């Protein structure tokens, strides 16, 4: 996607544990970085930001009190999940344009490695974060459904679990 800038002012705010603003905080957002539509996770001592609404292939890292672009993903990644791990690698899963796909991300000796060898999930899990359950990545529903799947860390296959109970949202299955 072509680079362009919004004609808007972005203000970053640092809050204490009670929600009070801490004065004197400056956070610089570098060129080709964004937070809207992105996914962030801590990995190997660094905070990473992947994808975004405009910068869909962004890989950025928090450095020197700012967000710095460090690489480009080999795929688009928007409104997706990046919190789960498999074999000490970050899983980048369920982008808007690939809601059943997962990629692996690793950093080895300063080089970024991307692998797409995992099988697709049975259901789309777009607009959804992931969790870990007994060492297995877990996807619970999506903005369109209540299907739950767990990625078995041993055979790396998605296993269907019981659907998440419908909280009473119209037009979703019970």
The main pleated sheet reads as:
5 strands, mixed
Named CATH topology? Neuraminidase
Based on secondary structure, the structural category is mainly beta
The name of the CATH architecture is 6 Propeller
Q: Supply the number of structural domains.
A: 1
Number of strands: 13
Descriptive notes:
It is built from no helices and 13 strands. By secondary structure, it is mostly beta strands. The protein has a single domain (28-160), classed as Neuraminidase (6 Propeller). A five-stranded mixed sheet has the order 1-5-4-3-2, with no helix packed on it. A hairpin with a 2-residue loop joins strand 10 (130-133) and strand 11. It is globular.
Entry summary:
The protein has 174 residues and is mostly beta strands. It is built from no helices and 13 strands.
Secondary structure elements and their pairing?
Layout: E1 28-29, E2 39-43, E3 46-50, E4 58-63, E5 66-72, E6 85-86, E7 89-95, E8 98-108, E9 111-115, E10 130-133, E11 136-140, E12 148-151, E13 158-160
Parallel strand pairs: 1-5
Antiparallel strand pairs: 2-3, 3-4, 4-5, 6-7, 7-8, 8-9, 10-11, 11-12, 12-13
What key phrases describe this protein's structure?
mainly beta, five-stranded mixed β-sheet, 174 residues
